Amino acid sequence: MTEPLLRRNISRSTFLKGAAATGLAGLALSSPRVAAAAPAPRDDGLQVAAYYFPQWHVDVRNEGWHGAGWTEWRLVRDATPRFPGHEQPKVPMWGYQDESDPAVMGQKIDAAADHGLDAFIFDWYWYDNAPFLQRALEQGFLRAANNQRLKFALMWADQDWWDLYPQKRARLSTASPYETLIPGATKPDSFRAMTDYVIATYFGHPSYWRVSGRPYFSFYDLGILQAGLGSPADVRTALDDFRARARAAGHGELHLNAVVTQFVADASRLVQTMGFDSVTNYTWIHFEYDKFQGISTPYRTVRTAAESGWADVQAQFSVPYLPNVTAGWDASPRTAQTDTFDKIGYPFETILTGNTPDEFRAALAAAREYLARPETTIKIATINAWNEWTEGSYLEPDRRDGLARLQAIKKVFG
Length: 414
Prior knowledge:
Blueprint: E1 47-52, H1 60-66, H2 73-78, H3 102-114, E2 119-127, E3 130-132, H4 135-140, E4 151-156, E5 161-162, E6 180-182, H5 188-201, E7 210-211, E8 214-219, H6 222-229, H7 232-248, E9 255-259, H8 267-274, E10 278-280, E11 296-298, H9 299-316, E12 321-322, E13 324-326, E14 351-353, H10 357-371, E15 380-384, E16 387-388, E17 393-394, H11 404-413
Parallel strand pairs: 1-2, 1-15, 2-4, 4-8, 8-9, 9-10, 10-12, 11-14, 13-15
Antiparallel strand pairs: 2-3, 5-6, 7-8, 16-17
């Protein structure tokens, strides 16, 4: 994902999300039923959802910018170590797959469901009145024969889409450190078209994830949301209208979630004024940025800081906070590999080291303990991420650790 949430207050970092070709609106997206059953709900009511970054299939817009057949797998393959002991390139155990293939997605669904995940939260994009990078969901997940085994939901990645493939060090010292390919701010008419598309295309699917019976829909960047729609009160009006149209379509009440960071000023007031139902984080670098120091930082340092901060974050908000567990952080594949690597601004950012499966399991155990508190009303943890390979945060098996991170989820959450 690109990183606009870091760009305002630090060196304009970006979270890569995607831009996919259009053309699937109106298709029947339900898939045939198969015999395999969804995992039984946990007795304790805990749920675990992993963010899914859909940049691993060929997309028409990406081909226009980067050449025929381009996907971000090219950056994964070309990554090199940037300091002694730096573990690059990351090599996927399943190979460099096309996620828009239903059979490929079916493998992911089975692995996720078998190891205790409840849902994928797809990073979802909308630019120029059309979805982008949606084929992973619409052709892959929704046409997979086993998609009833796992729920899915959307996090609208309302962000500027920047060209980071790769990012050159010299550009970060200029007045315009990032090349914006598509601006993220969405005006009211496009917001209505986007939410109409979501209501018609996704909410009615039997695998759409519901929280307390309500379809879950998340917003990535409150600042860009407000830039497109107006004042916080204008955002509230637009969200209330979104809720009303979803009710009129027969989907009931919505659960609207806001991704918050330490870089959004007065986030508590914005969340309350805009009328969100819960908050969470996308990744620890948005939450504990001051702990990411130098070229590398031990995973354990950030893990313990994040765990100790969850209760403090909850205290800031009047709605439930869903704790986030981050599997790792290494955005160096998005940098020009021949450039000197320093912490000077995304993607030249601190790399987490020592993010072993055991350390990840410790983070999961802390999240479970936090969710088990009687005062926790929504018992959901988010994980970054299923497949953020070029940011070094993924659950998919690699050649070094195999299925160990997925096994950690199963061990901790059952």
